[in-house]
Amino acid sequence: MHIRKSPRWQLKQAEATPESVYLNRRQIMAGGLAAGAIAASGGLGISKAFAQEDRMALEAARNDAYQLDRDLTPEKFNLEYNNFYEFGSHKEIASAAQALEARPWEVTIDGMVEKPIKMDIDELMAKMTLEERLYRHRCVEAWSMTVPWIGFPLRKLVEMAAPTSGAKYVRMETFNDPSVARGIKTQPWYPWPYVEGLTMAEATNDLAFLVVGAYGKVVADQMGAPLRLAVPWKYGFKSIKSIVRFEFTDQQPVSFWEQLQAREYGFWANVNPEVPHPRWSQARERVLHTGEYVPTQLFNGYGEEVASLYTGMEDLGDRLYR
Ligand SMILES: Nc1nc2c(c(=O)[nH]1)N[C@H]1C(S)=C(S)[C@@H](COP(=O)(O)O)O[C@H]1N2
Ligand SMILES: [Mo]
């Protein structure tokens, strides 16, 4: 694995963007301007700044086993349209999310394991073989995108953790610091921290991916730096961002959205066009960068990989799919 400043990207940025709107994060800081002040001074400047943000390049060979049935979503869309409630309950959180400090970052692995582990994110990344995978992403709100993630299978972290035989689930937790994420402070009615969970069978399925990068760079703050999950057969809210803890447990975790509204957002949340959300249809999805509506697929098109995880669970009915 190589992490380096990439002259390639910097050249591209300089070529593509007029000087006046090219502001990277370091320049914003050096200029003594809060990102918010720039945002207030004109939408164009700030949106260019985040689209062109000067993050470290991250190289990983593409795993061709995962093919897309549609175009890649341009990076700009992934950088400017986000769900990250810690920074606000709307899509324009990119600016606020720059307050996130992705280094140093300690990851705790505990619960039903032979020996609890605390590990720095860079140490964890150095232990893992990184690869690139092109995945679809389907939000429960009926929009979708595609992302070139860089990371490693969650299974590799499970193997490192060596859970005891009684462990049935992995529970994951996002950082919970109101001094960094203002949405935590201004929205105290939410059950912080953000929590998600998977069964051991789901967590060790090859599709379950831990993300540290995207678009050839370390993953952006607003996309869940420095470590997030991608479980593309489930609705997007299962793909928890900015993870600080993996806990192995024999209790089914109660996730953030399940605590808020269990009838609408359950534990399983597998994508299914035939099971509507109580307030809207899931039959179609809006492809973010084209605005086009396309049919939604069972398991978001990943049935071949994951359908077998759910055989014999028919008694759960619609609960498997919301
Ligand atoms: N910690 C945390 N993780 C989160 C969320 C969140 O609000 N907080 N939103 C989820 C939802 S609903 C979606 S659709 C995806 C969005 O990821 P993106 O902004 O990179 O597209 O992140 C998921 N992970
Ligand atoms: Mo979502």
**DSSP, total strands:** 15
Largest sheet data: 8 strands, mixed
User: CATH class, anyone?
Assistant: Alpha Beta
- Low-confidence stretches are 1-52
The hetero molecules present are: the ligand Nc1nc2c(c(=O)[nH]1)N[C@H]1C(S)=C(S)[C@@H](COP(=O)(O)O)O[C@H]1N2, molybdenum atom
In total, the number of domains comes to 1
Number of helical regions = 12
Mean pLDDT reading: 87
CATH architecture: Alpha-Beta Complex
Helix coverage percent of residues?
10-25%
Say what oligomer this is: single chain
Radius of gyration: 19 Å
* Order of helix and strand elements from N to C terminus: EHHHHEEHHEEHEEHEHEHEEEEHEEH
At the fold tier of CATH, the topology name is Sulfite Oxidase, Chain A, domain 2
> How does the helix and strand content classify structurally?
alpha+beta
Please explain how this structure is put together.
With 322 residues, the protein is an alpha+beta fold. It has a single domain, classed as Oxidoreductase, molybdopterin-binding domain (Sulfite Oxidase, Chain A, domain 2), CATH 3.90.420. Helix content is 23%, strand content 23%. The chain has helices at residues 7-16, 25-30, 35-41, 43-51, 75-80, 94-97, 121-127, 154-161, 182-186, 200-203, 256-260, 303-306; strands at 2-4, 57-59, 61-62, 106-111, 117-120, 131-138, 143-153, 169-174, 195-199, 209-214, 217-218, 228-230, 243-249, 284-287, 293-295. Strands 3, 6, 7, 10, 11, 12, 14 and 15 form an eight-stranded mixed beta sheet that branches. It has a five-stranded mixed beta sheet with strand order 5-4-13-8-9. A two-stranded antiparallel sheet has the order 1-2. A hairpin with a 2-residue loop joins strand 10 (209-214) and strand 11. Helix 3 (35-41) crosses helix 4 (43-51). The radius of gyration is 19 Å and the shape is globular. The site of molybdenum atom has 6 residues, from loops. Molybdenum atom is lined by residues 83, 139-141, 236-237.
